[in-house]
Amino acid sequence: MVSIQNLSVEFSAKSLFDNINYVINRKDKIALVGKNGAGKSTMLKIIAGLQKPTSGNVSVPQDTTIGYLPQQMELNDSLTVVEEVRKAFSHLHDMRARLDDMNAELLERTDYDSDSYQKLIEQVANLTEHLAMEESENGEAEMEKTLIGLGFTRNDFNRPTSEFSGGWRMRIELAKLLLTHPDVLLLDEPTNHLDIESIQWLEQFLVTKANAVVLVSHDRAFIDNVTNRTIEISLGKIYDYSVNYSKYVVLRQERLEQQMRAYQNQQKQIQDTEDFIERFRYKATKSVQVQSRIKQLAKLERIEVDEVDTSHLNLKFPPAPRSGDYPVIADNVGKNYGEHQVFDHATFTIKRGEKVAFVGKNGEGKSTLVKCIMGEIPYSGNLKIGHNVKIGYFAQNQAQLLDGEITVFDTIDRVAVGDIRTKIRDILGAFMFGGEASDKKVKVLSGGEKTRLAMIRLLLEPVNLLILDEPTNHLDMKTKDILKQAIKDFNGTVIVVSHDREFLDGLVEKVYEFGGGKVKECLGGIYEFLEKKKLASLAELELSKSPTASQKTNKDSEKKAEQDSTDFPASTGKAAAKLSYAEQKEHDKLVKRVQKKVTDAEKEIERLETEIASVETEIAQGDYNADLYDRHATLQKQLDNAMSIWELATMELEEMSAR
Fold it and tell me: What is the pTM of this model?
């Protein structure tokens, strides 16, 4: 559908892309991956027609529409949310105008037998059909579903867009883009401004409703769930895999290993042939064989090993000075802006060495509570910061606060003090700003490079409480993994505000959910929290599924109670007894469902344990088989998930039984 042909891009005599070719097909869901600065955002801009390549071209068929969501954009703040999003349907007005013009032309023309007249009739028919199809869809209903899916409430629809933060205004732009249903959708870090629930909605939308999608995202779970093809950009070349990201990582490693083995085998063959030629070069009896080997070497197609980008981030937080046992103690903490109560009665304790996550929809108070902990804004209640607590804070907009007009080196030199100033070059080198890169102006850095630069500030002074507000925005996969490991190895206390499920998985042992003005504590990791949340939602759903019967019972009981109170006041207790019986029946139904979930989980655990035992028996036989080890790892992960589901269902069953 879209063809990228012989594409090359150079910046300051440095090659970003070197003669790249590939095709975007209809219904392709492509993840564009690579290190920060590899050229992912540049590639999207070129496909969108916003930037010209040095050479080569992008071929887009006529009538193919392309929608593009950049990382940052200028936003219009003069309309309400609904008025702004309705702009997505402006193309319908353009289509009607074109159709009117074409019909007017048909009325004037008399060359009924000409090819151009027949072609015009076909165009009118196609446009009429297309317009009828789009108008048949309920645009207002679709707009409402999209806005709610992206986290807006109906109360937000008529609010001016100027009242929303930059992140929420980006959601408005995303809603407009999705509603236009372009043939090719280009998304540059679409999850940066979304919460977990909105990300899950967007995943579902892209999988079920979108046409071709090319996206840049560093949210591994998101791209795994959405994409079916991965294109890696590395050192000016691309590597195209028809699988999602997780499978690509495995296949890429296998490809490099096979390539290296083939290269080593060929090098040995070449060396053996050259040794033969050298040994028998001057022996007349071997001249035929020698000439044959020389020709063989000349014809040999040499195997080349793909150049691998070996630069990597060297990140390790300094050892944490010992703090008190409880770095943060919150007691009935609340925050309001005028009549709007962001949250209230937040009560919790974070122990020394704990790593916890703040999650929830945007606007529910995660960053607000962080600012309360930092002492940046006033609040109600008591918030105690423990003895000898030294806080290292990475704000959500940290990268945007950097001065774009100064160099990378000067950015750090201006905040470094004492002996650390003699080590600035070493620190910058560890963060992949070695050599000439340290003399670049900040404004020319990619989003990920700016985030890395902002992260260096945290290393300039030892701290024992790290507060990281969306630290993974703009970071590439490898850098995120390195940051995650560094946080794991950090011996202090950590609070992470993030919507990145893959990043939080295995990192935090406790989750605080922000929503509905409350802050709820949930023990366990992020996937245990999501599973428990799903179970809680299911319980609410089950209780509301059959309201007609229970409501009817309630209404009948209330009516009878009113009648009885007139003549027989003592009989009111019977009506109340009937009501509690109906509630008990509903409760029993719910208990049975959860019991079934426990039983199903137990069966799944038993099945997986049997399969694992079988695989382990095969491994014990001594035959090396990479697929066997992969199978074992997959089964083990499935078993861990099944155990988590079983634990959560059992806990829920115990809670219900105690009622």
Answer: 0.57
